[in-house]
Design goal:
Length: about 140
C-alpha cells in the first residue's frame, strides 16, 4: 500500500469514529441500570441472610458496597450536563431514596445488619428499570 492510501484510510477511520460518538442517554442508561442491579443484589443478599444462608457480615458488606455505588451513580447523573433535567431529577431522586433505604439509623451500630425495607427497595428497582425503558425511545 502506498503512503497516500494509508493516510486516506487513517483519515476515514478518524472521521468515522468521530461521527459515532455515543448519545448521552447511553451512559445514563448504564448508570441507572447499574443502580437497579445493585437494588436487586441487595434484595437477594437480604433474602439469603434472612434465611441464614449467608452470614450477616455478607449482607453488611453488600449494603455498604451498594450504597457507595449508588452514591457514585447519583453523582455521575447529577453532573451530566447533556441530559434533560427531568431525567436527571427522576434518577437522582430514586438514587436518594435508595440511599435512604440503605442508610442505617443514627443510633449506635446494631450487631445485626441494618433493617432493610426490601419491599421499598424492590419498588425503587422497578422504577429505575422503568426509567430506562421509558427513555429508550428518546
Amino acid at each position: 500500500m502506498t503512503d497516500l492510501r494509508i493516510r486516506r484510510i487513517a483519515a476515514l477511520a478518524v472521521l468515522l469514529s468521530a461521527s459515532c460518538s455515543q448519545s448521552p442517554l447511553v451512559a445514563f442508561h448504564r448508570a441507572v441500570d447499574d443502580a437497579a442491579s445493585w437494588a436487586a443484589a441487595i434484595q437477594y443478599a437480604h433474602e439469603l441472610e434472612s434465611r441464614g444462608a449467608v452470614p450477616s457480615a455478607y449482607l453488611k458488606q453488600v449494603v455498604k458496597d451498594g450504597k457507595t455505588a449508588i452514591e457514585t451513580v447519583r453523582q455521575t447523573i447529577s453532573k451530566a450536563d447533556d441530559l434533560p433535567s427531568d431525567l436527571k431529577d427522576e434518577a437522582t431522586t430514586l438514587c436518594d431514596q435508595m440511599i435512604g433505604v440503605l442508610s442505617p439509623p443514627s443510633a449506635p451500630r446494631p450487631p445485626r445488619p441494618p433493617s432493610i425495607d426490601a419491599g421499598r427497595l424492590a419498588e425503587i428497582e422497578h422504577a429505575l428499570r422503568a426509567l430506562v425503558s421509558k427513555t429508550s425511545g428518546r
